[in-house]
Amino acid sequence: MRYSAFSLAREALRGHRDWPRAWRSPPPKKAYDAVVIGGGGHGLATAYYLAKEHGVSNVAVLEKGWIGGGNTGRNTTIVRSNYHLDANAHFYEFSLKLWEKLSQALNFNVMYSARGVLNLVHSPADIDAAMRRGNAMRLNGIDAKFMSREEIAAWIPNLDCSPHARFPVLGGLLQPRGGTVRHDAVAWGYARAADALGVDIVERCEVQGIRVEGGAIAGVETSQGFIATPKLGIAVAGHSSHVAAMAGITLPIESHVLQAMVSEPVKPILDTVVTSGAVHFYVSQSDKGELVMGGDLDFYNSYAQRGNLPVIEHVVAACLALFPSFGRLKLMRTWGGIMDMTMDGSPIIAKLPVKGLYMTGGWCYGGFKATPASGFLHAHTIAHDAPHPLNAPFTLERFAEGRMIDEKGAGPYAWAH
Q1: Quick count: other Cβ atoms within 10 Å of Cβ 225?
Q2: Whole-angstrom Cα distance, residue 229 to residue 237?
Q3: Within its chain, how far is the Cα of 156 from the centroid?
Q4: CA 96, 405, 94 angle in degrees (round to 5)?
Q5: What tens digit of pLDDT does each residue of 151-176 get?
């Protein structure tokens, strides 16, 4: 349904009463052609592309809580494709191209903002690494530009680019097409579009068991009863190991908390995303004016969506080392997402060792920006029972076969953003 400016104003004055639902809330059927566990961006995108690209619309998305209540609503909204290794570069560039056209595809404004993602460098070794990465990106057809300290100082006056800075800025690698996307709009847009194609989105339906018969998926036991299906996709981020274990599969994944936080809202003062590997920090400014900040993992294993004070202290200290003028701002709120960290820092988008069982997970720090490509390729793998060329490298078997896709800093014990 479309609204004019006058109808929106009228509804606002009425207190937003009686607005139509953006998607249905049906009870689950007894059987589906495919079921996707997880009602975040990855699960909703998987269901949408199953229906849109493959004509498989008898699909259910099962979410134990509410749509977008997990990592989709607990991240820092950054999208980029500035990767070095070919498999990651091609995958994330495909995702970024989907982001660029996603608002039109879903007929829903996901607020993609190509404000650029700038990775600062602080040493000669950093410069060499950034140059190599930028050259690899350009060879793969991805936009990259190395900026000098003088160019950065003129562009971002709040950044301390003086030679006496705690972390002297020597330059930076910029991906101009990188930027941010509104996270909740992504969940709502995919949910509405999937629903319109006939997908059932079932909230408050917790998967409590996976039924395997004769080595193949038979269905799932849920808090709303048994649901039969021959194809089951797992898209549950930090709970991937927990859910896969229901089918007797052990994943090479650790779950950790990754915290983020926002300042009080202020007028526009930062029109790009700034990150620093040496400082372990990244920051951007939201559409509401808040400074959105984050840093390292909490390095203990956890399924908790909350963090601890030492990481908050680290992030704030890193912020002030780079942006001293931000010290007068108040911190408004913090939150934690559950990261499913693979041992090489790259995802698993693949068939699992049980017939009819598939997963997209192990996203480490990169889950949100992967959302469209993850859903597209997960859907392809489910529909064809075989991977697309773009996700063929991201198998579970690579860990046993020694075919790591290691970006040297994207895994659970190193910094990357």
Answers
A1: 11
A2: 22
A3: 26
A4: 15
A5: 999 999 999 999 999 999 999 999 99
pLDDT tens digits along 291-305: 999 998 888 888 888
Q: Is the dihedral of CA 226, 229, 230, 234 positive or negative?
A: negative
What distances in angstroms separate CA 233 from CA 41, 178, 280, 387, one per listed residue? 13, 29, 34, 13
Q: What is the pTM of this model?
A: 0.93
Domains contained in the chain, CATH given: 113-178+255-341 (3.30.9.10)
Q: Tell me if 308 sits within 8 A of 270, measured CB to CB.
A: no
- Most distant CA pair in the chain, distance: 67
Closest residue by Cα to residue 134 from 179, 178, 76: 178
Q: What residues pair up with 339 in beta bridges, in sequence order?
A: 256
Query: Which residues face 336 on adjacent strands?
Result: 259
| φ and ψ at residue 134, rounded to 5 degrees | -60, -40
DSSP strand pairing (171-175 vs 117-121): antiparallel
CB-based contacts of 391, cutoff 8 Å, min separation 6:
91, 349, 350, 377, 378, 380, 381
Check: CB of residue 74 under 8 Å from CB of residue 186: no
Residue 217's DSSP bridge partners are 212
Question: ∠ at Cα 366 (123, 293), nearest 5°?
Answer: 65
Return all residues near 354 (Cβ < 8 A) that are at least 6 apart.
212, 215, 216, 217, 247, 248, 249
Spatial separation of the C-alpha atoms in residues 315 and 377, rounded to whole Å: 34
